[in-house]
Design a protein that fits this description.
Elements: H1 3-31, H2 37-72, H3 74-77, H4 84-111, H5 117-143
Helix pairs in contact: 1-2, 1-5, 4-5
Bound molecules: protoporphyrin IX containing FE (HEM).
Protoporphyrin IX containing FE binds at residues 7, 10-11, 14, 17-18, 62-63, 66-67, 69-70, 73, 89, 93, 96, 99, 134-135, 138, 142.
């Protein structure tokens, strides 16, 4: 698959994933104090169920395209400290793997029925911070040189 197709797929999947996380943190967390606990739980359960339908495919495309693009940079990634691009891309990939860890943890907790209030909030905020780092790195790695 050509690089231009991979980066387009990667960008659209990133939009869906980052957009969902930003919605959850900036909008959903913001309405928590204005909505009753039971109603909030129902909304969170419904959103969680919808996310479990869409997110596996989104993540498959996001990580699949990411790995496909990273394959082009395999010689650079073999020596991550030898160039600014290699270092920043490596940090981006590590953060992306950490996000995957969060997602898998959330799926496991969700399947056990343990994904509630405080866990949801902590995972959202942590993934939100990761997202900011990943998006900043995705752009700075192209422009920041040392
Ligand atoms: C949470 C996961 C991820 C998010 C949100 C994300 C997001 C992004 C964004 C927004 C871009 C910029 C695209 C553009 O400029 O059009 C990008 C570029 C890139 N990503 Fe990711 N990414 C993620 C995971 C990964 C993974 C796992 C890899 C590789 C294993 C990867 C490899 C790359 C590469 C190589 C580029 C540079 C493309 C280029 O400008 O030539 N990404 N990513």
């Amino acid at each position: 698959m050509s690089y231009s197709v991979l980066i387009t797929l990667h960008l659209f999947a990133a939009l869906i994933f980052v957009g969902t996380v930003f919605f959850e943190v900036l909008i959903l967390e913001g309405i928590r104090k204005h909505v009753g606990r039971e109603s909030m739980r129902e909304v969170e359960t419904a959103i969680g169920n919808r996310a479990r339908q869409i997110m596996p495919w989104t993540l498959l495309v996001l990580y699949g395209a990411g790995i496909g693009m990273a394959w082009n940079y395999r010689t650079i990634l073999a020596h991550p400290l030898a160039s600014s691009f290699g270092t920043l891309l490596t940090i981006k990939i590590v953060l992306a793997l950490s996000v995957l860890g969060h997602f898998i943890t959330a799926m496991i907790l969700g399947n056990k029925g343990l994904l509630k209030g405080r866990y949801v909030q902590r995972i959202h905020v942590s993934v939100f911070i990761h997202m900011i780092g990943i998006v900043l790195l995705a752009k700075t790695m192209l422009y920041l040189k040392w």
